[in-house]
Write a structure and sequence with these properties.
single chain, 5 helices, alpha/beta, Rossmann fold, about 10% strand
Length: about 130
């Protein structure tokens, strides 16, 4: 998937449509997000990208998992993100997402999980679709 050689003179532009929710009430948006993804976008499978702590400590998983099951959305959880994620981690997350034909990516946590989720979604071609 990745090459070992990079043409340093090649300039690449990446424009992404990403929606982030911040604040005390952000956890309450999960039902609305999944409703939108399933009913308006026809999403049937999602990759959840996080680290080993964020999605459990914050209580997100206690809300997200029952909603995913209620909506009948297939999902994988990739939780091996570390600070300053490597291309190997991004490749691993993307492979897991491809295994279920993920149509959407949800990142949970700080900068590294969010960065990994964005790159995973880009690798899957999700950002080239109109939202």
């Amino acid at each position: 998937m990745w090459t070992k050689e990079v043409d340093i003179k090649n300039v690449v532009e990446m424009r992404l449509k990403t929606t982030c929710y911040f604040g005390v009430g952000a956890l309450g948006k999960i039902k609305d997000i999944l409703d939108f993804l399933k009913e308006k976008m026809g999403i049937r499978s999602i990759a959840i990208i996080t680290d080993k702590v964020a999605y459990k400590v914050t209580g997100v998983w206690d809300v997200l998992e029952p909603e995913l099951k209620r909506k009948g959305i297939e999902y994988i959880v990739y939780e091996n993100v570390t600070p300053n994620p490597t291309t190997a981690q991004i490749n691993e997350a993307t492979k897991k997402a491809l295994d279920i034909n993920a149509q959407a990516v949800i990142g949970i946590g700080g900068g590294s999980p969010i960065d990994t989720a964005i790159k995973c979604g880009d690798s899957l071609g999700i950002f080239s679709k109109e939202c």
